[in-house]
Amino acid sequence: ISFNAIDSALSSLKNCQSYINSGMDVATKVALDLVESFNDEEDVNSMEKVMLEYATMDRELNHYIKAFEETLNQVKREKPENLPDLENLAQEKFLEMESENSDSDFQRNEKYMYFKDQLKEMKKKYRGNDTIEEIDEDIAVTWSQMNFICPITQMTMKKPVRNKVCGHSYEEAPILEMIQTQKQKNKNVRCPKMGCSHVDVKRSDLVPDEALKRMIDSQNKQ
């Protein structure tokens, strides 16, 4: 039995995932632009719906690919004399996976969770300082600038990354260098933010902090 055509079709499906990922990146950027330009909450919420649709498509595509791969592997293992209806078998597996869907599935979609995280940070930074500014504008500016300083270099960050575990941000290059150096010594990296109790910073925990970078760039332009 030749499975080349099916393997080729699966490869094409996997390419579709890259288009979904690109769409999610664009939707994230647009949402952050909307918050930064103080657009209506309704506009921002519409981008969240777009992200949810992308995440749903991604989940369905993953299930479809997995269903076909499992069906193919099963047939290759069993080597039946008569080739079964692969499409029907795969469809059954797909529907079984889809029946177990839940909203918690989206928490495993890294791009959707990154969108939620960055949107939350962006709103906090652009809309959450009102009470501070009412008390003292100078205090608000000082507070913001303190958050722009990398705890490792003690300089304003240019390419900040955020730790998903403890929520602290650092300049990308020095934190990666710290992780690499300690890894060679078989040691963990403690979060360099003073007072943080997180003692095992991993490269995989770090994501670009687009919200903070926008705040820093905005401050530098003033």
UniProtKB/TrEMBL annotation:
User: Sorted alphabetically, which SUPFAM superfamilies does this protein's record hold?
Assistant: RING/U-box
PROSITE patterns recorded for this chain? ZF_SP_RING
Q: Name one Pfam family in it.
A: zf-Nse
Gene Ontology terms: cellular component:
nucleus; Smc5-Smc6 complex
Q: In which pathway does it act?
A: Protein modification; protein sumoylation
Alphabetical GO biological process terms? double-strand break repair via homologous recombination; protein sumoylation
User: What are the residue boundaries of the SP-RING-type domain, all occurrences included?
Assistant: 135-221
Q: Which InterPro entries match?
A: Nse2(Mms21), Znf_MIZ, Znf_RING/FYVE/PHD
Q: What is this protein called?
A: E3 SUMO-protein ligase NSE2
User: Which lineage is the organism of this entry classified under, starting from the top rank?
Assistant: Eukaryota, Metazoa, Chordata, Craniata, Vertebrata
Name of the encoding gene: Nsmce2
